[in-house]
Task: inverse folding
């Protein structure tokens, strides 16, 4: 579950929470919280930054990363012709 908003043109920020049962009997469930932001560098290129923290003992204590997304020149579903 989560949500996002657009604080400025070309910027997306959001938070989501994740939960999963353990695939091994006897281990605790895993739950984490992730915050992210994504910046449009060009029309086809976005840079995203995220950080996460675990909410249970079976989740990672913390984590983070960068994602670079490139979209081809195919018409996007939300754009008109």
Result:
């Amino acid at each position: 579950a989560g949500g996002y908003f657009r604080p400025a043109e070309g910027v997306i920020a959001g938070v989501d929470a994740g939960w999963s049962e353990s695939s091994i009997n006897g281990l605790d469930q895993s739950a984490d919280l992730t915050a992210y932001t994504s910046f449009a560098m060009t029309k086809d290129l976005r840079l995203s930054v995220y950080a996460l923290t675990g909410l249970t003992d079976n989740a990672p204590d913390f984590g983070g990363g960068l994602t670079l997304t490139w979209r081809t020149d195919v018409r996007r579903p939300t754009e008109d012709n």
User: Anything to note?
Assistant: The radius of gyration is 16 Å. The beta strands are 2-8, 11-20, 30-40, 45-54, 62-70. The chain has no helices and five strands.
